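Batch job 17 of 40 flagged for manual review because the log was empty.
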Amino acid sequence: MSAASTRRLIVADSFRVRANPRTGTAEVRGLADHLRRFRFSALGQLPGADTRARIDVFLDEAVDRIAEYGEGFPRLELWEAEHAGGDAELSLSLRPLPELRDTIELRSAPGVLLDHPERKGPNISRLAELNRRLGAEALLLDGAGRAVVEGATTSLIWWGDAGDSSGRFVADARAKGRANRVPSVTEGLLRRAADARFVGRKPERQSGSLSPATPTVAELAGAEVWAVNALHGIRVVTSIDGVPQAAPEERRLRWFREALDRCWHPLV
């Protein structure tokens, strides 16, 4: 696609590819989940009886190209047709790996209404510009400007206290039949890891599952908050709106980062 193109990005999905430290093999966390998310969104935007086969052929070829490229931050894309009656374009952008970080700052961004918030793609450019303007990751709120929904490029997990059973994630909400945020692959991996984790001492041991909640910015203030996504994994939130957040409980943070590391699998 030319740099001068004004076509809209309809669907996208991106993820980090690493080279295995021992073998050099290209690996991804949650690849099947990323492909499933892209396929589901693309199917909803592409008409035609052969749509599923077309998408599957594209994804098979894309995975081979990504594996050959190696370490990076590739993006699966569906662009709108160049002219009325034309075909939307499936494409792959092979991009170098940007700098990885362990921490992040958040700033509230009330009043931001997104086009199809449930789908990754249509809002990427707008949210990137918002982050640049804020000088931090935008913290998106619901239509009433009260409840936290997600970060511009991240999903949120937070802890009410030092207890291993106090973990929360943002509860799904629907408006006009649609979800209010993109389903996060990395959040899903962490939730599954938490489901399999037992915390506490015998005989009172219990599941370490994360629970859904609908937080306000005030309720997140001072808590241990993680911003998670496919590029950086877990980043500790150091401040929200310039106010410092609680330092992480290092043992717990290490456990979940190691759990994510166990999700690396070869592309092919």
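Reviewer: the log was empty due to a logging misconfiguration, but the result itself is present. The longest helix spans residues 51-69. Unflagging and moving on to job 18.
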